[in-house]
Structure of CBS domain-containing protein:
Amino acid sequence: MTTARELTTPDATCIGADDDAAESMRTMAEHEVRRLPVIDGHTLVGFVARADVARSLPDPRSANSSKHSPADTQARAAGREFGTPSVFVTEEA
């Protein structure tokens, strides 16, 4: 049986919890990935996907049609404000 450890990508690219949405998108594009682990120091705090980041940004088709106010968009663009929280970590027995 194949284990999760065997499927894991060594030296995975991560983003910091305080990185903004634009930096997250640049990192995903540069490394050709759709999801990134988010770390705070040495602690895994969640994962972020392109879709999470895209939802946090204003609609590029119209500066006035953003579903978020500028202040709300700026707050959501901080690394702690988008993504998938509640990471569960297991240890080998």
